[in-house]
Design brief:
The complex is a heterodimer of chains A (114) and B (113).
Chain A (H helix, E strand, L loop, with lengths): L3 E3 L4 E4 L4 E3 L1 E3 L6 E7 L6 E6 L5 E4 L2 E4 L9 E3 L8 E11 L2 E6 L3 E6 L1
Parallel strand pairs in A: 2-12
Antiparallel strand pairs in A: 1-4, 3-9, 5-6, 5-10, 7-8, 8-9, 10-11, 10-12
Chain B lengths: L4 E3 L2 E4 L5 E6 L6 E8 L3 E9 L2 E4 L8 E7 L2 E6 L8 E8 L7 E2 L3 E5 L1
The chains are: A mainly beta (114), B mainly beta (113).
Chain lengths: 114, 113
């Protein structure tokens, strides 16, 4: 079936450090790929997305590239801030039986220290 | 613009009581999802609707859980009777057709004592 695997957290970094959160997905069909962010006490919100191979999604300094050859969609940011502390979810969404079923990873907690 | 609206934000109840969670999706969205989030199991899809019709409820844990969507602007998730293991944050999300992003509500935190 469809699945998304992302690295376990927590990831703990100092401010201005480089961030990578790994995400791989099952290659069934031609999914759209997403990164969502969840701040404490809130719901998930879209951070960035990519809809086809080699697309790069970007937002707020975060980037992720849709890599079909490695079935990956790793999240990166060159310089993290304390305000980036949150839980990050990788997700895929593709057609199945005529309905677009979303699949989420387990989430990776990011803690950024000043 | 109003996002997905969920109520109540917090609910504390005793084991055996009925719990009803409510969701108002974004106007114009035709798909609605109910998720449960816990530390142990992460984010679980419970059920989703397309055009008010339940498409897949295989994620509903057991018969104590039921969900309805009587019209395009309202959905409920009911737990009867509730148990302590149902304690979690329940999210509703909506989206329009295709493989686009989901829009989540702020969640309903349920505590069953």
């Amino acid at each position: 079936g469809n699945s998304v695997t992302q690295m376990e957290g927590p990831v703990t970094l100092s401010e201005e450090a480089f961030l990578t959160i790994n995400c791989t997905y099952t290659a069934t069909g031609y999914p759209s790929l997403f990164w969502y962010v969840q701040y404490p006490g809130e719901g998930l919100q879209l951070l960035l997305k990519a809809t086809k191979a080699d697309d790069k999604g970007s937002n707020k300094g975060f980037e992720a590239t849709y890599r079909k050859e490695t079935t990956s969609f790793h999240l990166e940011k060159g310089s993290v801030q304390v305000s980036d502390s949150a839980v990050y979810f990788c997700a895929r969404r593709s057609a199945s039986g005529g309905s677009y079923i979303p699949t989420f990873g387990r989430g990776t907690s990011l803690i950024v220290h000043p | 613009d109003a996002g997905v609206i969920q109520s109540p934000r917090h609910e504390v109840t005793e084991m055996g009581q009925e719990v009803t969670l409510r969701c108002k999706p974004i106007s114009g969205h035709n798909s609605l999802f109910w998720y449960r989030q816990t530390m142990m199991r992460g984010l679980e899809l419970l059920i989703y609707f397309n055009n008010n019709v339940p498409i897949d409820d295989s994620g509903m844990p057991e018969d104590r859980f039921s969900a309805k969507m009587p019209n395009a602007s309202f959905s409920t998730l009911k737990i009867q009777p509730s148990e302590p293991r149902d304690s979690a944050v329940y999210f509703c999300a909506s989206t329009s057709g295709g493989a686009g992003e989901l829009f989540f509500g702020e969640g309903s935190r349920l505590t069953v004592l």
